[in-house]
């Protein structure tokens, strides 16, 4: 079981395949994500990954690195900078508080690009596995 102050992180390189699969799953085919020629004419100058793809990576780290086995109760997100295809982002999660008697944890969530710039930040609230009443 984790405790307040614990930190976990994971780095992931954003690929075109990830963006394509996310678009198929979400139905979000915005040309800023999918069409290089269109994207070249925007303020970003090239395609950007879906913001919610970064949010999905937060979920990945919560489930696979923190080992919560729990479920999301909430997540706030601020998208501060674009994530480009080819960027390597690092998701960092810090347990800020844990109410063991209720099985609720609060976590600071941050995504940084390879330059160390914060691209997404927020806070997650989760119900930890033992509060779910899992049966053996």
- H/E element sequence: EHHHHEEEE
Supply Rg.
16 Å
How much is the average pLDDT?
Answer: 92
Number of strands: 5
Total individual domains:
1
Enumerate the spans where pLDDT stays under 50 for 5 or more consecutive residues.
none
What separation lies between the terminal Cα atoms? 17 Å
The profile of the biggest β sheet is: 5 strands, antiparallel
Write the CATH fold name. Thiol Ester Dehydrase, Chain A
CATH architecture call? Roll
Please report which band the strand proportion falls in: under 5%, 5-15%, 15-25%, 25-35%, 35-45% or over 45%.
25-35%
Count of separate DSSP helical elements: 4
Q: What oligomeric state do these chains adopt?
A: single chain
Q: What is the CATH homology-level superfamily?
A: Hotdog Thioesterase
> If strands are numbered along the chain, what order do they take across the biggest sheet?
1-3-4-5-2
Structural class: alpha+beta
Shape designation: elongated
Describe the structure.
With about 140 residues, the protein is of the alpha+beta class. It has one domain: Thiol Ester Dehydrase, Chain A. The protein is built from 4 helices and 5 strands, in the order βααααββββ. Strands 1-3-4-5-2 form a 5-stranded antiparallel sheet, covered by helices on one side. A hairpin with a 4-residue loop joins β3 and β4 (about 105-110). The longest helix has 14 residues, at about 50-65. It is elongated, with a radius of gyration of 16 Å. The relative contact order is 0.22. The mean pLDDT is about 90.
